[in-house]
Amino acid sequence: MAADSGFDRTVPVLDRLLASLRRCRRSLPDQRRGLNTTYDMADFALAGFAPFFMQSPSFLAHQRHLQTGQGRSNCQTLFGPRKIPGDSQIRAKLDAIDPALFHPMFAAVVAELDRCGGLDAMRCLDGHVLIALDGTEFHCSDKIHCANCSQRKRGKDKIEYFHAMLAATVVATGHNRVVPLEPEFVVPRDGHDKQDCESRAARRWLEAHGARYARFQPVHLGDDLFSRQSICQAVLGTGGHFLFVRKPESHKAIEEFRAGIKLDERIDRIRSGKNWISRRYQWLSGVPPRGDEKAMTVNWPSIEITDAGGKMTYRNSFITDLEVSRENVAARAASGRARWKIENETFNVLKTKGYNLEHNFGHGKQHLATVLAILNLLAFACHTVCELADTAWRAARRELVTRQGFLQSPRIITTYLVFPSWDELLGTLAFTRPPPLGP
Length: 439
Ligand SMILES: [Zn+2]
Prior knowledge:
Elements (H helix, E strand, L loop, with lengths): L12 H11 L17 H13 L5 H12 L3 H6 L7 H9 L7 H13 L2 H4 L7 E13 L8 E5 L3 E14 L7 E2 L3 E3 L7 H17 L7 E5 L6 H9 L3 E5 L6 H7 L5 E9 L2 E13 L10 E9 L5 E9 L8 H9 L2 H13 L15 H22 L1 H9 L3 H14 L5 H8 L10
Parallel strand pairs: 1-6, 6-7
Antiparallel strand pairs: 1-3, 2-3, 3-4, 3-5, 7-11, 8-9, 9-10, 10-11
Helix pairs in contact: 1-2, 1-6, 2-5, 2-13, 3-15, 5-13, 6-13, 13-14, 14-16
The structure holds zinc ion.
């Protein structure tokens, strides 16, 4: 199949991305015994991925229907499984897979993004890539749970089960695209609180992936939870930079250090509609974030926004290893604030805009909940890369305006018609090709 030819420039972006998911089969464990092997293990991964990519929990059911009526289906022509496995088979096979085995597909996503110039378009602060780190929960339930669920007490004697992950997402100022990278799942361990779990997950993420992303000169963003010295040093150890939110109450040493010092200051007055608002920046360099002898030194920029009436509407401060000056303090603060995009543009979209991150497609006994979460993140990442890099996708998207509206169209049209390829499907949506004849 052409899609297996790796980075052949004549192969459309989406086919190359799906080929990378198909290649994960080499590492997928096949627990079946004997010769009666009807399905390739990659078929289960592709069949698990397809409903997320099509944003349709009933995609496979519709395709089985087409398969019966027309002898083939879009699941086969667009995603590649030779046969569509049953739902219970998919659940059972994916449950046994370590989610980390899908990591190579994130590398393929980043490679495509790099190739198409999408990553360069997202660079900030003179060539850095911003990677926002943040924790989120999914699959909260007081009934359904698995061996890898975290749990907490609710009320007197209720237990709530949930999964949590540290998401790493490429974000940019002045750019609404976000690209998820490999997540780090929080696995329950006795005796650690939520904050501890998230900061440990951040250090595991940096250890596993930080050095690989060093070539993008990453600046890691995160909330106050990440602004402890151990994580700052872990970031520097991977060759990256940090720009973490820092609340005054969690860094008394900085408050004490800056007391009595006249801070550098810059005030910008900016027009906002009919009114003028003012942005006041202050900064200090070479500050110890904690009080002991082994404290490292960091730079501390802060921002305060006041409205036309002089009322403060926003205030935040950060710690960073990047140099802060009168010229760059506004850009540093703007990048620090881009962290909110992981909440807004990623978690919010994944949970409410068709990706159904929290819907219960299945939970499993071991890894199913996390495997489905990772396939969902990959679907989101592939959509973003296609929007940036795939000409056929962009042409179809131009005709169908919004992201959600656009993603609905393939879902509906593939319920009735079988398309021989993505190019044919996208060509039909862009009105450059007639749809295939129905049965
Ligand atoms: Zn679970």
